[in-house]
Amino acid sequence: MKIGGKKVLHGPATEIIVFAREDVESSLAFRATAMLDKSEFDKFCPMPKPPKMRVKGGNLVENPDDPKFKVALDQYNKNFMDYMFVSSLTALPLKEGEPDLPIEWEKVKIPDKHTWHFWEDELKEAGLSDMERKRLFNTVMGVNSLNEAKMDEARASFLQRQREEPEVLSFPTDERNDTPSGEHVNGSASDLPESQNAGTILMKK
Amino acid sequence: MIPIDLKNCQLYLIDGTGNNFIAIRIGEGTLTYSVKRDIQQRKSRGNLWQLREGEQQPTDVQFQFVWDFITSSGDEPPTIEDVLYGTAEGWVSASNSFDQTGPFTVNLQIVNTVPCFGPSHGSEMETHNFPLFAFTSLDHSLKDATVDCKGVSNRPRPIVIRS
């Protein structure tokens, strides 16, 4: 995709979170990267379908109130959260410029959805406290969701940046000699020469 | 005949494995059953003396109702006819293990949840079980969702559980 002729290569939203330890080298630094698509998740964990029920007239319709389906849907949502967490998280390298390090889970196996929830046990074994695990989870969820407050903040920041652009924007214009100049509005006069005055917009801060 | 008001009850037809069932949510209807006992009298010198129970008799069961919807243990509920005839896929007769040649039977169960008014605000559940039910006549209209069925339960009396 291009915007204004430039290819958009910003990549997905990311957030860095660091848990301090005794020294910098043993600190735990993670990067949460927003998941771009869930096709792999769908492959390993297809969405449950509601069973059918027979209604008057003999027709079969979907029954989303089926208790077993509700349980399956709950489990599906839990699986998605776990998968999102596991697949969004990488470790930051110690040297800048190096690529992120993948987390080598020992119990979590991506092709087996029944192992995805073990991420919490593994982080616990790695020494992350309950609060740290929750914070990490919330960071991953935050980067993967469209938080309204964050979007408002981003919008305000973008508009502020737009307003702080250079005061005078000049368009490349050629002075056209065949255009007669009229009277100044309300008899006002400009200090600028006519050639510079043309095609110039004064921006207010 | 003992009548049971089926309004807002759930009627289950369960196969011999217990894994396959259909649950029929009933709008209006009645189930009646009749228990028979063969009681024989013994006399002593012309006077009534002892009672003896003769051979067991099956329980006659009949029900008429209008159903709201039918759900099942599987993804797609079979029809009531398929279940009672034993043609529903994967269904095993309730009497299959000891009777290979007899008609297809299901275990029939009625669950009635009665709300309790009082400090506990709980509910009371009453379950009537008619094991080994085989129908003798069946009228079912899918269009009108009406069922009129008669049959026998191959047990001398139903099993009633209240909780």
Would you write up a description of this structure?
The complex is a heterodimer of chains A (205) and B (163). Chain A is of the alpha+beta class and 205 residues long. Helices cover 34% and strands 17% of the residues of chain A. Chain A has helices spanning 39-44, 67-88, 119-125, 130-143, 148-163, 194-197, and strands at 2-3, 6-7, 14-19, 28-33, 52-55, 60-62, 89-91, 101-102, 168-170, 200-202. Chain B has 163 residues and is mostly beta strands. In chain B, a hairpin with a 6-residue loop joins strand 2 (10-14) and strand 3 (21-34). Chain B is globular. The mean pLDDT of chain B is 90. The interface between A and B is medium-sized, with 12 and 15 residues. Strand 5 (52-55) of chain A pairs antiparallel with strand 6 (59-72) of chain B, so a sheet runs across the interface.
List its salient traits.
heterodimer, A: 205 residues, alpha+beta, 4-stranded antiparallel sheet, two-stranded antiparallel ribbon, disordered C terminus, B: mainly beta, 1 helix, 10 strands, 4% helix
Q: Structural class, from helix and strand content of chain A?
A: alpha+beta
Contiguous low-pLDDT stretches of chain B (5 residues minimum) are none
- Calculate Rg of chain B over CA atoms: 18 Å
What is the total tally of β strands of chain B?
A: 10
- How would you describe the shape of chain B? globular
H and E string of chain A: EEEEHEEHEEHHHEHE
Sheet of most strands of chain A: 4 strands, antiparallel
- Our count of domains of chain B comes out at 1
What would the principal axes of the Cα set say about the shape of chain A?
extended
Strand content of chain A: 15-25%
Q: Quick one: which chains have the greatest interface?
A: A-B, 12 and 15 residues
**What is the helix content of chain B?**
under 10%
Question: Helix/strand-derived class of chain B?
Answer: mainly beta
Mean pLDDT of chain A: 82
Helix tally of chain A? 6
Taking the alpha carbons of the first and last residues of chain A, their distance comes to 32 Å
Mean pLDDT of chain B: 90
Proportion of beta-strand residues of chain B: over 45%
Distance between the termini of chain B: 24 Å
What's the gyration radius of chain A in Å?
Answer: 29 Å
Number of H- or I-type helical stretches of chain B: 1
